[in-house]
Structures are given as C-alpha cells and as structure tokens.
Amino acid sequence: MNQPLVSVLMPCYNAEKHLQDAMFSILNQTYRNIEVIAINDCSSDSTANLLIQMAKADTRIKVYNNEENLKLIKTLNKGIELCNGEYIARMDSDDIALPQRIEKEVHFLEQNKDYGIVSTQFLAFHTDSPDKKSLHHNPLKHEELRAYMLFKSGICHPAAMIRKTIFSELGLKFELDYLHVEDFALWSKAIYQTKIANLGEALLLYRVHSNQVSTLNEQLQVENKMKVFKIHCTQLGIPISDHLLHIYASVAECVPYKQSIEYITECESFMLMLLDLNKQKAFCDNVFLQRMLSIHWLRLCANAQLGFKVFKTLKKSSLYQRKDYTSRDMTILYFKCLFKIGYKKSFIYKIFFK
CB-based burial of residue 327 (10 Å sphere; 0-12 exposed, 13-18 middle, 19+ buried)? Predict the structure, then answer.
C-alpha cells in the first residue's frame, strides 16, 4: 500500500481534560505518515500549553492559534487550508481513535479511488462510566447511505477521512448556514458528487457528555436539518414548500408535527412518493429504502398520540411490513398507543422508546 500523507485536523477549545488521550491515540496509530493540524480556538484553560508541550515531543504536531474565537465551522475551514495531506482525517479533542483507524481508512481510499469519504462505526461511552460502551452502527454501502442520508447523517464526523480534493476541486466546505448540522450538510452535498462508505469495524471511541453542542442545541439542530432536507429536495426534483418541509421533518424524526390522522396520511404519501421517485431515478438501494421507511412509518404512528385509532391507518398502508419489526418495536407501539405517550427528547426516553 502507498503511504500518502494524512493530515489529522483537530480543533481544540478548552480541551485540557481529554486532549492528551485524544492526541496520543493519533500519535500511536499504526499508520505513521501523518501530520496533526491542531488549532487552539482561544481556549481559556491550559489547552495552549499542552499543545506546545506535545508539539515539542513530536514534530508531527503543528499548532496554530486563532486570534479570536472562530468556533468550530470557521476553524474547520481554516484547518482544511492548512492541511498538506492527500487525505484529511477528522478528530475531536475529546475522543479516542483506535490504533488501526487511519491505516484502515487509507487502505480503503487507496483501493477505491472513486470514493471521496470513508468513516467507521463507533463505540459511545460516557465520561463518568468509560467501561460501558455501546456500539453505533451506520450503513456500510454507498447505495444504502444515499437512502439513510435522506433523513440523518450516516457518517461519524470525528471518525471520517476525506480526500482533500473534496474541498479543493469540488468546492465543498463546512457552512455556517447549517450550524450544528454542518457535517450532515457536507455529506448530503458530497453524496451527489462522490461515493461515501463506512467501514464495518468500530475504530473510534466517541465520548458523550452533557456539554456537547449536540446536547445543548438540539432544537436548533432540528431547525437546521430542514435546510439539509432542502438539499435533497433540490437534487431529487421535489418541489419545496414550508408545509412539505414540515412533513419531511416529521418523517425524518418519526414525530408528526400535528396530531391527526389526516397529517399522518400526508406523511405516508410523502414516503410513498420517495419510493416511486427511487423507482424512476434509482437514487439508492430500493430494498434498504423500503425497510427504512417501513420502520419510520411504524415509529411515526407510535408517536402520533392518537391512541389505537391510528392502527387502521398504520396497517392498511403498504409501508406497514410486519417482518421489519421486532417484538420490542411492537410492544413499544402498543404501549405508546395505550397511554398516548408523546415523543420526548430525554436520554431515558430514547433508551426505552426509540
């Protein structure tokens, strides 16, 4: 295998608590031909000093300091310009890359020249219980990811490796218009211009904690996801309106914007339209899309707060495919309908009533 230079792009802001673990996990990779572009975004803790000390110990680390707090998106775009490598590997300053992550990602991109982005599965853990890890699995194949990304990001951003040409030749970048879902927007644009894949192995330990942007800005994320949905509508030729985007978001989140059978039926029509559109344009894996929409349909009805009267609408639809549902799925459906339980964003709720 060739040994092209890989630039590991690591923005750092008040990262003193976990920075050393994150950095050492990169420096100790089995793949050695790397540079680390570490950008200190005006941290108020000891991040700057830690980066200086680590750079003195390993010349592969290149430290840059923002003159003002640029925040993540501007820092990422600045970092991309500073990267010298053929490949750019993203890394967050509080996660841990497993030893073969970069080697396996480089191998994939070297063997698959028509792919522009590759990521991996990941193991999530909480800072206060590091030994308890949960596997998060995203689709592997490009054709499946094209279906999956209609609704949510299928790429773990801090585990991703990206050809620099994605930025230098295709002109893509992280954009402020998609604040807090900037990675989802980038993948959603890239997937129409290049191929994307995930490796089947978990090669990143992803740290979950209460101060994460994804935890603190969940409502803004939902709003900006609707902007991402516009990307797909434009690419697929779907007429855009505020009402359609609310329908789209309801299907994506499996939470109806309005509690009525009529609204649920509109969501059903939107999903059936996607299936028909895919038959015409062969945009993605049709079997994968059908199964995904089947599951979204069940969860959408379960979250409708309409009680058991939703069952008739649920089961008469061609989207209803009993073979796609586990006994747990059906138990949650009955329980929610019995008590007309609405969707909640709490962590406990997501564990039991996903």
Answer: exposed
Same domain, 90 and 184: yes
CA count, 13 A, side-chain hemisphere, 292: 23
Decide: 254 and 284 in contact? Cβ < 8 Å.
no
The domain of 138 spans 6-215
pLDDT by residue (tens digit) across 30-85?
A: 999 999 999 999 999 999 999 999 999 999 999 999 999 999 999 999 999 999 99
pLDDT at residue number 209: 77
Structural domain total, the chain:
2
Q: Report d(CA 87, CA 239) in Å as an integer.
A: 37
DSSP 103-144: HHHHHHHHH-TTEEEEEEEEEEEETTEEEEEEEE----SHHH
Q: Is residue 21 part of a domain?
A: yes
Q: Could you tell me the sign of the dihedral formed by the alpha carbons of 78, 83, 88, 92, in that order?
A: negative
Residues 192 and 302 in one domain: no
Residues 78 and 202 reside in one and the same domain: yes
209 with 63, same domain: the answer is yes
* Amino acid code (one letter) for 104: K
For residue 256, the SS3 value is coil
> pTM score, two decimals?
0.94
- Over 90: is that where the pLDDT of 267 sits? yes
Alpha-carbon distance 236 to 55, whole Å? 47
Q: At CA 313, angle to CA 310 and CA 317, rounded to 5?
A: 145
pLDDT tens sequence across 192-201: 999 999 999 9
Question: Residue 351 pLDDT > 50, yes or no?
Answer: no
- Here the tokens at position 219 are 């409502």
Closest CA to 81 of 155, 189, 180, 9: 9
